[in-house]
Amino acid sequence: MDTSTTHVPLQAGDLALRLSQNGHRLDELLAFASRQNPRRGYLFVSKVLGKHVPVRPTKMDAIHAELASKVDLLGRQPYVVGMAETAVGLGAGVARHLGDLHEGAVFHHTTRFLVETPWIRIKEAHSHADTMHMAQLSTKAARVVGDAQDLVLVDDEISTGKTLAQLAQALTAQPTLARIKCLHIVSLVSWLTDAAREALLALLPEGVEVRFVQLMAGTFTFTPCPDYQVVLPDNVDTAFCDALKTADTSAPIEAEGLYGRLTGNHPTPEQPLPRVPGASRDADLVVFGMGEYLDAPLRMALQWERDGMDVLFQSSTRSPIMLGDAIQSCLEHPAPGQPDKRHFLYNAPAGRVPLAFDGLDSPALSKALEDSYRALHPHGTAEVPA
Where is the TRSP domain (predicted)? Predict the structure, then answer.
């Protein structure tokens, strides 16, 4: 097996990467940064995820399609679950392409929104916001999932897989998933050592075949810098969000996988995508999703790019990251439901018209992010031309 070793110096310490699968794609897929989080110092910064780095929508869609094409299903209609918050958009894209390739799919995701009917609850050891849950599937989605033989768990990168193992155990224990025969663990990058893979397999449900799909694989070691000492900022959002429970009407994010979104041959009816009056082919745009609300804004941005417009896409996050390394800039906006807390958007590109979509029907949130962008890049930005 061909391997290559790459050393990455960070503020938080030194990463040594030993790449065993598709190491030539390292620069395409990853950059690196330092977390402002005492639990874990390093951060793998995806260049294709649409989170910490702006990405062409067509590039994101191509990555989703590539991963979906590598998933060898046993059945016809998989149940796809994306991990909040980073892999919600990735999971949605993989599910959409799996639905097109086969006879449909159901996409569902973990969440840090409070919901009326929580289904399962798991913890993520390294995250600053370490607890998440899943809402109950809608009746229609549950009917399709009840016939599924394939459970597809999607995350951006896997280091130990312990959180995915918790999720797999919790899901396969549900009567709705009684027919699941194959578990597919799908990621952009897998960092599982041989020992970690064996340990993960021992944690996964018995009697279910396990298959791994990734675009790049290897192992790494991290040597912390003894002088790098950080604490979580006071304004970081670590709590569940109650914005959906206090809303009077259904929010757009609720149609995007919170209760199960059907794709392919039996799609969930599309909510009208956000439309911006006067959007012009002459405007260079950057479309911002927020937190777990990625896929609807991405679909809009993708259509605009296919129509010939110059569009980039990315989304804000709860995660605090240090400036430096691969992080060149940071914007802030109020956290949904907690105006005294902040979410962050990194590496926002200059010289574009910002269009932000919060998924909660809260124009003030979207405006706050757009205003923050204009404050960072006051020259060369403009309103959408009439």
Answer: 279-368
